[in-house]
Amino acid sequence: MGWGRMLLLGDWGQQMDLEDHRDSITKLAKQNSRLRQTGESQAERVAHVERENDELKLYLASMIRLLVNKGVCSKEELARFVEVVDASDGSADGKFGGEVGQ
After folding, report:
1. Is residue 97 part of a domain?
2. In this predicted structure, what is the pLDDT of residue 72?
């Protein structure tokens, strides 16, 4: 918390701040260690995520086309339902942060 703790709690507050910083440093060091252990650079991880995203888009486009071509739903119905699902996580922002299986 910084100055607030220092002013209110004195040395004890400063010690609490130092402990918070130690915890943060330890957490970052563990994350860095895990990244090095995987042997995967950040560029490789980004490329992997991009490949996964491309594959997901392929499957999604295939499913949408299949549903529309079989007459299960229209493009308009699907678009309206996407809007409903988008808003269901609390924010109509073009993203979905809720549970997929609901």
Report:
1. no
2. 92
